[in-house]
Specification:
- This protein has two domains: 2-167 and 209-232, 3-Layer(aba) Sandwich (Rossmann fold), CATH 3.40.50.720; 169-205 and 235-272 and 286-300, UDP-galactose 4-epimerase, domain 1 (Alpha-Beta Complex).
- The protein is globular.
- Helix 8 (240-251) packs across helix 10 (288-300).
- Strand 2 (26-31), helix 2 (38-46) and strand 3 (51-53) form a beta-alpha-beta unit.
- The chain has 317 residues and is α/β, with parallel strands linked by helices.
- It has ten helices and 13 strands.
- The chain binds nicotinamide-adenine-dinucleotide.
- Nicotinamide-adenine-dinucleotide (NAD) is lined by residues 6-7, 9-13, 31-36, 55-57, 71-75, 90, 94, 112, 114, 142, 165, 167-168, 179, 316.
- Residues 6-7, 9-13, 31-36, 55-57, 71-75, 90, 94, 112, 114, 142, 165, 167-168, 179, 316 line the site of nicotinamide-adenine-dinucleotide.
Length: 317
């Protein structure tokens, strides 16, 4: 089975590409390489995965693919607040082109959306039927992508599935705007204080990248392109304070924790209702302690040695 991954040289995309190849899929990556990491590129090359350098907005070579995973996007919340049009242009138009190419060829499409579409939740846990009120241009661009695909399903018969990912962590996140987990672990290994924005009582739903890969593979393997939307998270809320304590325990050294002001666009609480995806896939999420150990051992092994320039910013959500 041949799968095309857009944004496949990014954090989630390359982990997914490696996962699918291990499972026997024939994988091709298309990426502008604008925000890919040298670490991800090296891993893809070592695995012999072909990389097409192209912007998805101008790419139309979809012949011979059985499924497409659309991961290409700009993902910095902070940058999106500074430069909203850039996010609308790249993320919405990119999704519009990818969706159209899939629709006219009858290719099943997995769209990686984000919990950022919900904005500040009105109730917890957040189910798929929760109102969508994104409070950043990034979240808005992901939601507009969803809307475009929903419309294509009606107009052109697109077969797709939208996955709203919560806070994904794992090997290969670029430190310049990696999630809080990579940032905490790297700082802890260097013996630096852990920086918490706000009081640390805010909660997040952390999901291990391999779990995301398992879920995506499920949809491709089972050919489930039901035009539905699914949350992908762990279903477990973790406060940032708890996370800091877990990292300190794991690394086994005393480290100070410093607090800085909360950042614009940050929601207070976030945890996914994962009953819909669990009922369908039966995939159990990796407990955070286990995931942290895996990322730590990767980091200790010299990981991630990625130094390519990327947009400054802060964790995606
Ligand atoms: N990381 C998370 O916690 C998280 C959470 C929710 C949703 N997501 C979604 O998952 C997807 C992947 O996120 P990530 O964390 O791997 O980001 P990333 O920045 O590591 O990877 C994105 C990749 O897309 C490429 N890209 C961007 N615009 C492109 C374009 N127009 N054409 C071709 N390539 C382009 C970049 O060069 C980069 O390699 C995104 O769609 C993001 O919105 C991520």
């Amino acid at each position: 089975m041949r799968v095309l991954i857009t944004g496949g040289a990014g954090f989630i995309g390359h982990n997914l590409a490696l996962h699918l190849v291990r499972k026997g899929y024939d994988v091709v990556v298309v990426d502008s390489l604008e925000r890919s990491s040298s670490f991800a590129l090296r891993r893809l090359e070592e695995s012999g995965i072909p990389i097409i350098k192209a912007d998805v907005r101008g790419f139309g070579d979809y012949g011979g693919f059985d499924a497409v995973v659309h991961a290409a996007a700009y993902v910095s919340v902070e940058e999106s607040i500074r430069e909203p049009l850039k996010y609308i242009e790249n993320n919405v138009l990119g999704t519009a082109r990818v969706g159209y190419e899939c629709a006219r060829r009858g290719i099943g499409l997995v769209y990686l959306s984000s919990a950022a579409v919900y904005g500040e939740p009105l109730r917890l846990p957040i189910g798929e039927d929760h109102p969508v009120r994104p409070q950043t241009p990034y979240g808005l661009s992901k939601l507009q992508g969803e809307e475009v695909l929903r419309s294509y399903a009606l107009v052109y018969g697109l077969r797709h599935v939208t996955l709203r990912l919560f806070n994904v962590y794992g090997p290969g996140q670029n430190p310049s705007y990696a999630g809080v987990i990579t940032s905490f672990l790297e700082r802890a290994l260097r013996g630096e204080p852990l920086v918490i924005y706000g009081d640390g009582e805010q909660t997040r739903d952390f999901v291990y990248v391999e779990d995301v890969a398992n879920v995506v593979e499920f949809f491709i393997r089972e050919d489930v392109f039901d035009n539905e939307t699914y949350n992908v998270g762990s279903g477990v809320p973790t406060t940032i304070k708890e996370l800091a304590r877990a990292v300190i325990r794991l690394v086994g050294r005393e480290l100070p924790v410093v607090h800085e002001p909360p950042r614009p666009g940050d929601v207070r609480h976030s945890v996914a209702d994962v009953s819909k995806i669990k009922k369908l896939t039966r995939i159990d999420p990796t407990p955070i302690e286990e995931g942290l150990k895996k990322v730590l051992s990767e980091l200790k092994a010299g990981f991630p040695n990625n130094t390519s320039p990327r947009a400054g910013g802060r964790p995606v959500s």
